[in-house]
Amino acid sequence: xxxxxxxxxxxxxxxxxxxxxxxxxxxxxxxxxxxxxxxxxxxxxxxxxxxxxxxxxxxxxxxxxxxxxxxxxxxxxxxxxxxxxxxxxxxxxxxxxxxxxxxxxxxxxxxxxxxxxxxxxxxxxxxxxxxxxxxxxxxxxxxxxxxxxxxxxxxxxxxxxxxxxxxxxxxxxxxxxxxxxxxxxxxxxxxxxxxxxxxxxxxxxxxxxxxxxxxxxxxxxxxxxxxxxxxxxxxxxxxxxxxxxxxxxxxxxxxxxxxxxxxxxxxxxxxxxxxxxxxxxxxxxxxxxxxxxxxxxxxxxxxxxxxxxxxxxxxxxxxxxxxxxxxxxxxxxxxxxxxxxxxxxxxxxxxxxxxxxxxxxxxx
Length: 364
Ligand code: M6R
Fold this sequence. Notes:
- The chain is an alpha/beta fold.
- The chain is built from 14 helices and 12 strands.
- Strands 4-3-5-6-7 form a 5-stranded parallel beta sheet, with helices on both faces. It has a 5-stranded parallel beta sheet with strand order 9-8-10-11-12, with helices on both faces. Strands 1-2 form a two-stranded antiparallel sheet.
- The longest helix is centred in the middle third of the chain and has 20 residues, at 157-176.
- The two termini are 31 Å apart.
- It binds 5-amino-5-deoxy-1-O-phosphono-D-mannitol (M6R).
- 5-amino-5-deoxy-1-O-phosphono-D-mannitol binds next to helix 3 and helix 11.
């Protein structure tokens, strides 16, 4: 049941800390700070390229995964939504490898991609939440997210659990490919292990996020901006908002705004910025300043180090816990999901069962 929560989505949002802890402990030894992966269907040190495919939020997790794997393991990654993947007729070298990501493990588009991949001689690893699902069974190997059942149509804890698994995979690949030292691995593992308690702290900022939601609920269009691994989180924020509040939202790479979408900016469009301190901060902040200079209402998520710079032009700044750059996509996914939740509640939509959508999409 929902316990004391109004909706399954709210309950599931509050499960983030526990689910992240459980999923990380599955693949990371908190004592030795080592990633421990089960036997994989391919050797990450011997592949020249990796395909990632999934749908919806799971695909956005895959986009973050691409970023991490390319950074930490120097392995080229191709990421495509499953419904398009096969129409590209992608050239796949024999002996190649792929990762499919899914909460349900029953998404028809993924199953079609899975079959195509296997016919093309690829070894397929699934990251999946339902162990007895078709995807888990038909893949060459499966890594489970430890999210428990997810009832709300909008994916929440399953998404961050997917990110946790992909983060561990990226570290494991990095080590296997000799791109990461033991020291690097320990540092990254330490950062990941800080995520659950910071996730709990973010859930306690609920009232602040609800205030932001009251502004967002009045808008007709909303822009979400991020750079680097925060760009897929901007897309996740926009997807969640569309899905459950029916407000039109778009996610954009912050630097791409000047190539078109900046024309949309006026004083009616909230610009939600995902802008943690770190190597991408300065450039992102200057993109946001451009939006503010054109009358845009910048509402930024950042940390204590980014706060002062953003306060100069942002209408609202929500200060999140500071964490190593590596883990910021996992952490920043939580407030954007929470924001969409509150906007939907304010709008009175059917949060757990939004119109036209199904939890598991079994048609192509
Ligand atoms: O079960 P799956 O993870 O394969 O589902 C994929 C998408 O249908 C799913 O992520 C969808 O986008 C969610 N409703 C997003 O919140």
